[in-house]
Amino acid sequence: MSRHFHVHVGFGALVLAAGVVLAPADAWSQPTTPDGWEAPRTAWGDPDIGGVWNSSTVTPLQRPENLADKAFLTAEEAAAIEQRVVDANARANAPSEVRTEPLPVGGSVGGYNAFWLDRGTTVVPTRRTSLVIDPPNGRLPALTPEHAAFVASPERQRVKDIREGLVPADSHEQFDYGDRCIWYRGVPSLPTAYNNNYHLVQTPDVIAIVQEHIHDVRFIHLDGRPAIDDDIAQFGGHSRGRWEGDTLVVETTNFGHRAYLFSSGPGVQGGTNWDLSPALRVVERFTRVGPETLDYQFTVDDPNVWTSPWTGSSPWARSTEPMFEYACHEGNYGLTNILAGSRAEEARAAGR
Length: 352
Known about the structure:
With 352 residues, the chain is an alpha+beta fold. It has five helices and 13 strands.
């Protein structure tokens, strides 16, 4: 038995089917703060943003092109999308049909259900049609000509083909850090298909962000320390933070030359990597806007990759559940089997 499933929201098509109703451009610029509510404080007086938060959402990173200038969903459109996701999840988790015919040689064997996926079932509270809020069209800026040429190069295409299983892999080094359980999402933190929890731990001088996926930890220094030298590069960059009113502002620079940003959220087939450069600068803003919501906004500026900076918003929801340890290498024979399969394909092609 097998199942070929992909929980697809059909965001743009569903909205157009429901009818286009444009909401005012500034109606829900950020999640609404309840009347009379004030952000709780730590023992030393800073806004309390600690705890476990979840970034899962069915809102895509980029606005579907067919939605044009439609920046917000109506309540009815949002409800229809969320119901469609619930129905799609139910179909994906239904018992598989008995298969009596073999699958095509070289084709996908499918998956047994969607148990390991957790993209969420709701749109963002603002009902925006994309996480990208600037540029106003809700889409990423154009790539620079140089980076576009790199993306289209045979070398980069081969890496993509290897990751998608289209050509044999020569070595483990041809797989990215996520495949090798070393690193996954990058900065900023974009929603993906699962493990979208973050545990924020506060002290007066440091905030630690523990990422559920591959248990990465970021340390945000609040003690006013200067930036590190430009010639010092770290894979995840160097983060420094400060409080501006009730908002934690984090600036991250000094990225290494192999940094990347990953998303496998709605509308992204199989996941997409954006290769980034050491010129990358990310500014994140964390604001507690309600008892259950942490507003997360981020601006990404890499002049070697995109022709202009871009900004996104991905409100996080409070989780009352603990965040468990993430296991990646343990019992994971995927990379070994991929390389063994590549050698078998080569041997078969050589007639051995």
